[in-house]
C-alpha cells in the first residue's frame, strides 16, 4: 500500500511536468496549427531563467573570512549579503520562487517574438517544413544557451525550508516510512494550479471563449470581425509562459543543462500524440497517465519480471495507442488525420 | 539539371566514381584531404543517400534512422569479435540485420503517415537507444561502448599475440587511405543503386506516393509494400554506413542511436536538396567539411583573420564571430539550416537551379520546369 501510494505520487509528479509541457505544445498546435519542435527549448529557457537569476543574485566578491583566525582566509560573499545582511541571504535562498515571477514577462516576450518574428511565416507551409524549421530553431536556442552557460548542468537550489522531505505518511495515516521530497510536492501542486488556471482562462473568460471558437472555426470568427490572429499570438505567448514556468520549477529537481529541451521534447511529443493532437484535456490526462505508468514501471518488482521496461514504457504505450486508437486517447475528429 | 537527367547511367557513374576516388587530390587545396575526414564524407554519404530514398522519394520524414546506424555498428563489431577481422562478413551481416530491424520497425510505423509516422520512428529509435544503454548491456556494453578485446574468439582468424587486431580486407589494413577507398567503393555502389532506384518504375511509384497517395490507392496500387521496401532499403543503407563506421574505427556506442543523430542526417539531406540524387552528398560534404574547419577555428585564428582592421574593430569582430566558430559550430549550422528551410526548401540544389534559370532567363529563354526537374531527381 505504501509503495503503491508513493509510486502514484511519484507518477503524478513526473506527469505534472509532462502535462505542463504537453499543454503548451497542444495549445500552440490547436490554435496556430504549428508543430513546434522548439517547444522543448522553451522549457529549457525557463529552467535557465531560474539559473541565471540565481547566478545574478549570488554575484559575489572575495571577502576576508573572519571565522578563521589562524591565517588569512578569504571566502566568496554575495553582494546581496553584504548590502542587506540576513534579508539578502533570504532573497538568495528564495531565488527560484522569485524567478518564477520574473520568468513570466521574460517567457511572454520570448514567445511573442518567436511567433511574430519567425513561426508566423510558416503557417502555410507543410507540417514537415514546420518541424524542420522549428527543429533548427531548437538547435540555435540550445547552442546559444551552451555558449553562455557552458555544457555542464548548473544547479539552482530550492529554498532551504523545503529542501527536506515531507512526512506525508504520518499526516494521512499510512505509516512513518512514507516520506516525499517537499519540492516535488510543491511541483505537483504548482502543476495542478497552472493547469487549472489555463483551463479556467480558456473556459471562463470571454477571451478564452473567442479562442476556443477560433480553434473550432477560424474563418467564421474572423468574418465576425474579431482579430483572431492576434489572440492566437497571445496564446502562443501563454504557451511559452506555461512551459517556461514548468522549466523554472523543474530547475531544483534536475540541474538544467543545454540539452534539457531536446530530452523533454521527445517525451512531450509522445504525450501530445497519446493524448490526441489538438485536445487539451487529452494532453493533461496523457501526461499524468504516462507519468504514473513510468513510475510503476521503474519499481523493482516489475523490472525483475520485464527487465528494461522502465526505459521504454512510455514509447511502447505511445506506439500501441497510435496503432489502435489513431486519434490518440481524446483526439478530435479532423485534427491532423492521415 | 535536365542535362544530368538525360545523361546515360554509365557516364554519370564514371564521372561520379572519378570525382569520389580523386577526392584525396582535389580536396587537398581545401585543406580537407586527410583520411579521417574523407572516410566521414563517404560514410555519411552512404547514410544520406539511403535516407534520401525514403524521405526524398516518398516524403515520409523518419526521425529514427540512427537506430539502424547503431544496429549496423553493433553487428559489425560483433562480427569482428566473433568471426573474423575481415570487413566483408561484418558489412554483410550489418546490412542484413539492419534490414531485418528496419522491416520490423517499418512494418509497424508505416501504418501511419505524416507526423504520426515521425513520432513512431522517433519512439522506436528512443526505445532502442534506451535499451542499448540499460538492459542490453551484455550485447552493447552500455555506456562504455562495444570494443574489441584481445581474447575475443574470432574463430576464423589466427590468435593475435600482442596488441589489438586491426580491421582488414584480405590483409589490407583498414586505417588511413585504404579505409577511405573501401568506404568510397561502397559509396559508389550505393550511389549506383540509388540512381537505379530513382530511374526505375519503382522510384516513380515512390514519387507518386509522395505527390498523392490517395490517388495512387484509387489507381489500384497498394502503397504499403512500396513504402516498406523503400524503408527497408534506406534502413540497409544506414546499416551499411554504421558498419563502415565500425570498419574504420572498431567500436560502437549507444549515442549513435540517439534521435539527435537521426536529426543530423535530416539536416544533411535537407541542406543539400531533398529528393535529388546529388543533393544529400553535397549536404554531407558541406556539413562535415565546415564542421572540421569551423571547429578548428579559435580566437587566435580569428585575430589573424581580422588582422588588417584597427585593433578596436578587430576586438569587436572577434567578439561578434567567436560564438559561431569552434565549439559554437552547431549554432552556425542551426542558423544555416533555418535559413535553408525558410528560403530554399529544395536545399542547395534548388539554389543552384535558381541561379541557373536566372542566367538562362537573361539570355531570353525562360525555363520554369527546372525546379520541377530538380525535385524529380537529377
Mean model confidence by pLDDT of chain B: 84
Major protein interface:
A-B, 40 and 41 residues
The geometry of chain B reads as: globular
Major sheet of chain B, described briefly? 2 strands, antiparallel
Helical fraction of chain B: 55-70%
**Lateral arrangement of strands in the main beta sheet of chain B:** 1-4
Order of helices and strands of chain B: HHHHHHHHEEEHHHHEHHHHHHH
Strand order, sheet with most strands of chain A: 1-2
Q: How many strands in all of chain B?
A: 4
Our Rg estimate of chain A from Cα atoms comes to 22 Å
Mean of residue pLDDT of chain A? Answer: 85
Are there runs of chain B of 5+ residues with pLDDT below 50, and where? 364-378
What is the succession of H and E elements of chain A? HHEEHHHHEHEHHHHHHHH
CATH topology of chain A, by name, is: ABC transporter involved in vitamin B12 uptake, BtuC
Q: Shape of chain A from CA axes?
A: globular
Share of helical residues of chain A: 55-70%
Largest sheet of chain A: 2 strands, antiparallel
User: Structural class per helix/strand content of chain B?
Assistant: mainly alpha
Tally of strands of chain A: 4
Q: Specify Rg of chain B, calculated over alpha carbons.
A: 22 Å
Named CATH architecture of chain A: Orthogonal Bundle
